[in-house]
């Protein structure tokens, strides 16, 4: 599809859908959920591959993308007959065979497609970050509230791991003591670009580099860790300070490739430090939660607990803290939080989506938590690009 067709198709987003089948897609307890995928880039195809691992739960029946080569790539993932293929997402939403929709498109398109999906009566798995701006987040919450029988799950998949549930439990039970510092990084050493087969497709494929479409490193990476802190502590930051720049790749991008954000959580007495760079991969994913009795250090699939010396003096061993039946210490004085590494978070997240569609219960990563994180990302970017201290408004807490 050429540039003109892309602009024409995306311009249709604001015009509403062409739907005739607007009844709620009903999924019984024994049903396989029939999925339509809107957006067949790296993330969309990645989720499709995970869905294909659970044929008893999910069946992909339709795909949509404005780029023809992406549709061809996605068709290769079909193990059965070819998926029904669309270049206009509204046609997919008009397909009565689709029960639920995975939306994995550029961030600036999330809101319009999410609105149309809900108005089409479909269940929705919307990739993070939930919306491009605050107004969209608040409006999407209102719409989802008006459609309580439809499941809306937001794709902050990493915190769906059993490891992260265990850490949330440790926090809630006070095992870490008084927590005052959160240190997070998600670093890479590379330009973060996708190959472009035609120069005219630069902004469509590398949309993450351009402010018109993207929230940059805050939305694409650091939103996961911000989301977990919001969820684990049932809180949100009050103050946002940030700095950054295009310090590594002088290639015409607009979103920063080097960022550092500091958030203040006054109710908990915590400071959150969130940083990312495209110029060094040594730390990679780093997530530390520091309390007076110990520190949790997390990767996406494994974690360690490091007790403070005073805790060991008072209690000797820390049985019960991590849930381990036998405490084993590494050379740095830490013990594993879980005995084994976990699976990819997407697998756990999709399992939850399946169960919540069938039960009608609220997902753990839902419209409310998704909105709170989207608001945080927007405020952090406002602080970052405007070089100002930004504050949370009370109206954001009324969602």
From TrEMBL:
Pfam families: GFO_IDH_MocA, GFO_IDH_MocA_C3. One of its GO terms (molecular function) is nucleotide binding. Residues 166-296 form the GFO/IDH/MocA-like oxidoreductase domain. Residues 33-156 form the Gfo/Idh/MocA-like oxidoreductase N-terminal domain. InterPro entries: Gfo/Idh/MocA-like_OxRdtase_N, Gfo/Idh/MocA_oxidrdct_glycsds, GFO_IDH_MocA-like_dom, NAD(P)-bd_dom_sf. This is Predicted dehydrogenase. It comes from Mucilaginibacter gossypiicola.
């Amino acid at each position: 599809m050429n540039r003109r067709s892309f602009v024409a198709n995306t311009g249709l987003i604001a015009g509403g859908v062409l739907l005739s089948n607007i009844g709620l897609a009903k999924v019984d307890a024994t049903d396989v959920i029939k999925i339509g995928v809107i957006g067949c880039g790296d993330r969309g195809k990645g989720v499709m591959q995970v869905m294909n691992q659970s044929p008893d739960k999910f069946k992909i029946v339709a795909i949509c993308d404005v780029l023809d080569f992406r549709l061809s790539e996605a068709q290769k993932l079909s193990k059965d007959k070819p998926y029904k293929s669309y270049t206009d997402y509204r046609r997919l939403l008009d397909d009565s065979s689709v029960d639920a929709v995975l939306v994995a498109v550029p961030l600036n398109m999330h809101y319009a497609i999410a609105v149309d999906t809900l108005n089409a009566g479909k269940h929705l798995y919307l990739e993070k970050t939930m919306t491009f701006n605050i107004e969209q987040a608040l409006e999407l919450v209102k719409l989802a509230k008006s459609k309580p029988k439809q499941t809306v799950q937001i794709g902050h998949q990493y915190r769906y791991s059993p490891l992260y549930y265990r850490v949330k439990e440790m926090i809630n039970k006070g095992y870490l003591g008084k927590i005052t510092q959160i240190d997070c990084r998600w670093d890479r050493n590379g330009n973060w670009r996708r190959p472009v087969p035609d120069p005219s497709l630069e902004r469509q494929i590398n949309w993450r580099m351009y402010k018109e479409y993207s929230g940059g490193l805050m939305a694409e990476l650091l939103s996961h860790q911000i989301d977990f802190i919001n969820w684990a502590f049932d809180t949100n930051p009050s103050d946002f300070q940030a700095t950054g720049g295009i310090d590594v790749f002088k290639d015409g991008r607009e979103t920063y490739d080097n960022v550092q954000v500091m958030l203040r959580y006054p109710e908990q007495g915590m400071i959150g430090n969130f940083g990312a760079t495209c110029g060094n991969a040594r730390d990679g994913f780093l997530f530390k939660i520091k309390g007076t009795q110990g520190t949790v250090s997390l990767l996406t699939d494994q974690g360690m607990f490091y007790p403070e010396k005073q805790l060991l003096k008072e209690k000797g061993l820390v049985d019960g803290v991590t849930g381990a039946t036998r405490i084993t210490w590494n050379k740095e004085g830490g013990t594993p939080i879980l005995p084994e590494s976990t699976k990819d978070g997407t697998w756990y997240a999709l399992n939850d989506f399946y169960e919540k569609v069938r039960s009608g219960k609220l997902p753990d990563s839902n419209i409310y938590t998704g909105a709170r994180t989207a608001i945080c990302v927007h405020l952090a970017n406002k602080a970052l690009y405007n070089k100002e201290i930004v504050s949370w408004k009370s109206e954001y807490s009324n969602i």
